[in-house]
Structure formats: structure tokens, C-alpha cells
Design goal:
- This protein is α/β, with parallel strands linked by helices.
- The chain folds into three domains: about 45-100 and about 105-205, no CATH class; about 270-345, no CATH class; about 355-550, von Willebrand factor, type A domain (Rossmann fold).
- It contains 26 helices and nine strands.
- It has helices spanning about 35-45, 70-80, 90-100, 105-115, 120-130, 135-150, 165-175, 180-185, 195-200, 210-220, 230-235, 245-255, 255-265, 270-275, 280-285, 285-295, 300-305, 305-315, 315-330, 335-350, 380-395, 420-425, 440-445, 470-480, 520-525, 545-550, and strands spanning about 20-25, 30, 355-365, 395-405, 410, 455-460, 490-495, 500, 510-515.
- The protein has a six-stranded mixed sheet. Strands 1-2-8 form a three-stranded antiparallel sheet, with no helix packed on it.
- Strand 3, helix 21 and strand 4 (about 395-405) form a beta-alpha-beta unit.
- Helix 3 packs parallel to helix 5.
- The radius of gyration is 24 Å and the shape is globular.
Length: about 550
Amino acid sequence: MARLGMTASRTLAASVRHPDRTVNKAGGEAFELRDPSLRLLTMVGGSFWNEPTYYGDTPGAARREGLSDEATLVVDTALEIARGPNPRDLLALALWARSEMNIRTTPQVLLAVAANEPATKPFVRAYTPKVVQRADELRQVFAAHLALFAGGAGANQHGQKLPNSLKKGLADAFGRFSEAQLMKYDSDVRPTFRDVLRMIDRSRDRGLPQALFRYLTTGEITDPAVTPVAAARQRLARKTALDDEARALIRETHCPWEVVLSQFGNTRATWEAVLPEMGYMAVLRNLRNLAASGAELAPALAKIADPKEVARSRQLPFRFWSAYLTLEAAGALSSKAADALEDALAHSAAALPRLPGVTVVASDNSGSMGSPVSAKSVVTRQAAANLLAAIAQRVSDDGRAIVFGETAALVPLSTRDGLITNLRKQSATDVGHSTNAHRAVELMMEQKIKADRLVVFSDMQCWNSAGGAASLAGAVAKYRRTVNPSLFVHSVDLAGSGKSAVVPDDPRTNLVSGFSEKVLATVAAFEGATVATAPTRATARALPTLDDIRARY
């Protein structure tokens, strides 16, 4: 049964006594996260900016105009960090989310918040070129500033109220991008590069040659030698036929595939002309369109399966599953395409640290996890959880997989099988629709599994459909009393509600969020294993995830 819009009004029986004990949106036991930096850590990686969630917005809750519950909480938490004792955490978390979780919009929002708060302004110039990692994000930061602090996208387009720290940071960031990178994301959608550039102090170095600045602000080419891509793009725009000259100009300008298809038509010839210039994500998302056009897929599949391309792309694992589903739905999933996507997933997991001992991965397969990760996605949170669990099981010396809902079940996964195969095994295991996460831990006790760690992938809206005091936190406490007092618990939030399903101040409990396989690196770091993403660490040592982020970012 759908539970959209329900409110938590039930009285909970005592499971774990804790001063921060509360209820979640499902009415189950949860814990407030008093430390705003920790709260943001559990939110920023597990949800996409201002996307709808399964439980909807809480009726009567105070929300910022145009923002959901979760988006409002992200902004309010960011402000709380900026006004608290550890203001630099806001920038460190923004950089972590952008660099490791590969989240694009939310880090730019956090950067805009930081630029408007006195205690965080001193850090903004240094962090801006690091957080802004793609040219279109120059515009996204400005858009976030306008929306949150300058009356919306239709007001104050020239940014006279833009903080100096962000002006200088954006000027530095502009200089990091080539003409081709800027041209790729130049469009008339506001705010434009023109809007952003006009807000930067013209008496200072803005990081751009004057000729490129002139083109981006006026569309005028004053020196083709300095702006060869823009000049070639203008020549390409005048072409009416996809001839050899047009193909050469497409290569020379790295023209976006959308522009090329709009100009020359959605045909096999057009796709094959633009394919060599397409980025990894564009190829991945357009496999179905390429197949439908009749284009030769071999070059695209070779790119998808190339381990160096996979590493550079930093794709979230569920993106490969999305491509798989889209091809499958279109009847275009060949064995070669399936193999390429499986290979890409395997490559994405290859650099992760091994997890020693016995690891239990528990993925939430309840009804709420059937909601998509974003409004336009074909991938559910359940599938994302099961895929991350399959990856975690693969990098474990002895990995056991459990799925939970109303009940819980062990799912036999073989590391010799593909990750998509193991995802499907978990998804095909019927455990009902309630979110009885405690059943996963109870099953571990019933099966006498002495685990070194439990990794839970869930939206953390855990509750007890049978009533009574049983909860995830209570089950963990009992497991430690009766089976293994040294059990590590890693809670990976895939919805970002800002509350924890386990006791947050427990020294052997790690709270994190994210759809990236790199959340598993925090498992190793938290427990003191060597971390592949931090090669400068001389010796392995336990380090809470938040402190690890502070140290590295």
C-alpha cells in the first residue's frame, strides 16, 4: 500500500534509550543528527537536488519557496554549518560530494550558500575552482545564488549583489576551462556565460583571453586565432549538408551531439559523424538512440567498456543499469552491449579496497525503495541499493547478501557472476513491502553469522510493521551483546532525510550517503584499512568519515 504523505503519529515502544531518539517519515524509530556536518554528510550524497521522494513533503512543514522538504533541509543545514564552530566543513563536504559522489547540482548550491555567509566567505575563492569541475557549473553556481539570495533567476541577472569571494572564485574557475569546454556548454538558457562574466570585476584578471571574453559576452569573433573553436562553430552553423567539410568541422569544434542532430537530422550518418566527439556519459545515455538509428555500435561499446574511460567518467553505478534497462525495453540489448555494460561495472569496482573478514550487505527492498532515484530516471532506489550491495559483496573476502522488507532473506551471490546478474537475484527475492530492517540483523543471529561488519543500503525509513519495540538500532545492540561486540555498522542513506536509523554517536557506526561505489572506500577508511583513494596516507588507521573528509578536502 502506498504511504505517500503519511505522518508519523504513533507512539514508539522503547527499543534503544537515547536522548536524540525520534521518529522518521514512516513513523519508525530514528535518531536526530545534532551535528549539522554529520547530518549533511548523510544527506548530500543520497539524493539529487530538489527531486520528489516516495513519502512526499510533510504537510504543514516550513519549506523554502520552490523547494522540497529535503532540499530545504540541505540549505538550512548548510547555513547551520556556516554559522557553527566548523564552517569550513561546508566547503569540504561540497568538494567531497562533487569529487567522490559525483553529485553535480547540490555542491554548487552549497558553494552559493558559503559565499553568502561571513564565516565561510574566506574559503570560497580557494574552493570554487575545485568544486566547479564542469564548465556549465559556472552558470549553475550563479543560478543557485540568484534563486536563494537574489530573488530568483529572473532577478538581478547582472549579480551586483554577488559576494566578492564568489566573483573571484568564478574568475579563477573560468581560467581552468578551455575554449572548447566553454563552448560545449554555451547556450541562451539563462543565466548564460554572458550573465556570469558581466558580474566579474573587469579590472581584475578573469582568467580568459579578451577575444574569448568578447565572444562569450557579445557573440562577436574578434580574433579567430584566439577563438578557433568559436570561429569553426560559426562556419559549421552555416552548413546545410553533412558533407566532408561538415564532418571535419564537427571534429574540430567537438560540437555537442544535440546541436549536430538538430542541424543535420537524426540519422545514422549524423550519429556516426558525432559519435567520436561524444563524452562518455553522452554515449552511455544514447546507446538506444544509436541502436535505433542503425549506427555501428562497436565504437560506442568499446568506449563504454574501456577501463580508462570508466575511471575518467566517474559514472554512478546505476547509470550502467539504466542504459541496460533502456536497451532491454527497446529490444536492442545485444549480448555485446550487455557484456560491455557488465565490463564497465566491473571496472568501476576494480579500484575499491578489499574488505577483510565477513561482510554482510543488507539492501532495502521495501515498497518505498521502488521509487525512482529521480523524476526522469528508470532506475529505482531498490535497484541502486542492490547494485551497490553486489559491488560490496564482490570486494569482500567473505561477503553475504541479505535483502529485507517485511521479512529478510539471504541471497546466494557468486563473485563469478556479473554484477547485473547479482543485482537481479536480489531484486527477484520477494521479502514484502514493509521496511523491517531489524529483520536483516535478526536473520544474521538466526543463521549464526559472525560478521565483522554490516553495510546497510536503504532510504532509512525503517519501521516495525508488526508493532512492538523491535528496530534496527535495537537489533544491532542485541547482536553485539550476543554474537560480536566488535561489529561495525555502515549506514548508507539513499534518500537523504537527515535522520539516522542507527545510534549516531556509536564509535563503531559509520553514517554516510551516496549512490557511488566510492561509499565503500569510507567503509575501509572508517575501520582503518588502506584506502585506494587516499594513497598519501602512510599507515592504515581508523578515521571517522567526517574527519577523513575534513583531512582530505
